[in-house]
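An instance as discussed:

___
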Amino acid sequence: MPLEFLDPILKLIPGIRKPAMPLTFKEKLKWTAIIMVAYFALFSTPAFGVQNASAQQVFQLINVIFAAKIGTLITVGITPIVLSSIVLQLLQGSGVINADLNDPQQKGRFQSIQKLIAIIVAIVESFFFSYTFLNSNLLVPGFFGLVVLQLIIGAVIIIFLDEMMVKYGLTSGINLFIAGGVAYSIIAGTATILLPNAMQQLATPGATALPLAIEAFGPLFVAIIVMLVSIYAYDMKIELPMVFSQFRGVGGRLPISLLYASVMPVIFATSLEIAITSLMGGVLPHFATSNLAGFLGYYVNQPSATSGNTSALTGGLLYLLSINSFTQSPLISGYGAYFSYLATGTSPLLIPWGHSPSGVNLAFSCTLANSCIAIPEWVHVLLSTLLLVVLCVIFGKFYIEMTGQNPKNVAEQLQTIGWQIPGFRRDPRIIEQILEKYIPTITVIGSIFVGLLAAFANLTGALGSGMGVLLTVGIMYALYQQLENDNTLAGYPALDKMLS
């Protein structure tokens, strides 16, 4: 489908000009710092008229995935950029649109269309979040329109900051915004939660004061452990020998990393879980007297100092299958009480065909007498971890197919650039057969690994969340490889040491 008919509209969209001359590494570093300062300024500015939204648990993982901070000017985060990119890639891949990205004019038009879609998505999502705040009693009455306008402005600024980072910075803005948000949550969590808890324990007389103070930093230690394990996993790879068919003696290796699909499987899996629990959380409490609603999700009212009563998922099928839903947290209760809760605690599961006494709101007053059974929390841990791992495997296989990293596409790419496996004739079918022995298996193993690592981090309360830590390590590892391949780090040993 030709796209020229959009040119009159695209001319109205402002853009960031490319630098007139290639920037030095120091200049890119300077622009990166300026852009990140602007991002954190938006990150720290609450939207006028929204109260206590960032404290809601349902929003915590959304903050990590989309480099957002719910309730601030960047409530929408990078979602418009990601969704617009996905939509255009799907349209391009399916043949609905056919843009030659090697042609500068068509590439520019393609990027402008992506920016236009991102702005439209930003407007729609700003209305969605404002409506969610309104339904959750997080919006000051009469401020709906003003909040929508603030969120739109913040989202559009993020879109242009990302474009500026691509043209003037070290890498894409999306990557650094995510990494910056996770780093902020780790630092802020340590300063505002862990450190005060440790000081409180030290102020308590007794021989257990010091051990309990050290235990208070457990979530930080877990985050560091997950980082180190992730870095080690990125370096685990199988290397297949390759030779260049037209030049004898010229060869190399094709690395197939344990994390071949990166951490995308756990992102997709967790995003799906968040979407389902958030959607059901807005619907099920309205059908609280239904046995089926009580079976799917058991909600209780939790008083809030700023937003009245809010519904919290504490039982039901959704609770049992969610790795992110637990009624206690080691950040608050400490590891001793938390692990005791996991070992001995229970959550209610309503039997949908059971008898419901008339006038009893089962979703908020479920007891064993009202056809409920108590499910041990350790069963919740096993079921939610198993589901997360299964979803990671499914999404891992889906991801390599959608991104062209499957054996067939990789074999065709190697054939195109003239590489072949020594000892075999130059035929993409031969290369595909050999890659079939490695890529599918490594994809499954890697997906299981990231699923288990993310589950471990979430269950142990790692600062920044398990997925946030995995994302940050992946982003910084990719940045390190990019700079190393460009030989940029050769003249900056301090930066090389920090990134490596």
In short: The two ends are 46 Å apart (CA to CA). The longest helix spans residues 104-135.
